[in-house]
Amino acid sequence: DGLDELARELDREHVFHSWSAQANPSTLVIASGRGSRVWDHAGHEYLDFSSQLVNVNIGHQHPSVVQAIREQAELLTTIAPSTVNLARGEAAKRIVGHAPSGFRKVFFTNGGADANENAIRMARLHTGRDKVLSTYRSYHGNTGAAIVSTGDWRRIPNEFARGHVHFFGPYLYRSEFWATTPEQESERALQHLRRVIEAEGPSSIAAVLLETIPGTAGILMPPPGYLAGVRELCDRHGILLILDEVMAGFGRTGRWFAFDGSGVRPDLITFAKGVNSGYVPVGGVIISDPIAATFDDRVFPGGLTYSGHPLAMASIVAALDAMESEGIVENAREIGATVIGPALAELAERHAAIGEVRGEGVFWAIELVADPATREPLPAAAMGRLKSALVARGLLPFVQDNRIHVVPPCVVTADEVADAMAIYDDVLRTALEGEG
Ligand code: PLP
């Protein structure tokens, strides 16, 4: 308990936190972890159904990834990006091994924001065009172009980059298009994007940047035909398609990439998070051959001191090898289809406050409403009570707006899911008493 108190005191005194006013800091101390569980110094246990920021896909402290980082640290902890390094080549080879054919190169960044930043830069230089289209319901990171591409509220105090245009993507539960079926939603969302492209001037648009499945915005599953329709619109006008797989990629959906099986081939893919489960900060852009060729003889005007950092590279190699040999992506797919999905459907039947559950793999959202008929979102105060009650019951939740995202590591077991469901059930019953 002494260490937990010391950690809180130091944090309160000296640490400046993301996305928050600083006066009321979090008091949740995490000191260690294993698989889908984490502990404070005093040994209080939490089931991690957030995967932190939806990035710890392989679970906490996977032994072979920890070992690979240790071994690389003994050999060489850092090296300039201009050098040739074996770990970097091995990491890039494994990443493109999961991409469609026609992708052979990877540019490594420090995380997801700068992955999108550099993908946008490549798209602009490759096309000679300026504008980037992205959706209002999106999060693409917190640097210059990435935060202005972002649609949610975090863009608004940060609009210093130019050339960004936003549109509405499909979201049937709160349709912007008066749609009542997934087919209608898909068709009308595409018609809306077609009109935005025409009105902006197709030849001024470098890229459409999309999260394959918008994550933080609510795990918004694209309806049938939507991604293919966006690809078609891009092709018609020489616009590049950048798919942001930072949150959805590397196992989260039960597939290596969320777009796998959709028949859609992007021009650039951005990744981070699940590629090494965040054991060392890293992200990157997977570049299709024609765009890579643009920079064969032309200087690419971008770089980072830590591009392809050896500790990150070693952790990618070990993480992807373990995910493959241990069937971790398959586990995410199976447990999503046979355990999490059915359990959430049952939960929704028991609680009127659940307006919708949606998702796949280990990527699910519970959308909470004050009134199922009007779909009015559950107010922030009630969401706050739910969040506190979940933590008090030993479950780390991912709470965003009026939603609980059920996003455990890909290695989660059926027993852990059952424990979590019992906690969600109990907390929804008790914390919402007197509500709605
Ligand atoms: N893109 C998506 C879809 C994300 O979910 C995130 C982070 O949550 C980012 C980009 C930004 O990644 P990072 O925080 O590593 O910069």
Automatic annotation (TrEMBL):
GO cellular component, one term: cytosol
Keywords: Aminotransferase, Pyridoxal phosphate, Transferase
MF (Gene Ontology): pyridoxal phosphate binding; transaminase activity
Membrane-spanning residues: none
A Pfam family the protein falls into: Aminotran_3
Family from the record: Belongs to the class-III pyridoxal-phosphate-dependent aminotransferase family.
Name used for this protein in its record: Aspartate aminotransferase family protein
Domain of life: Bacteria
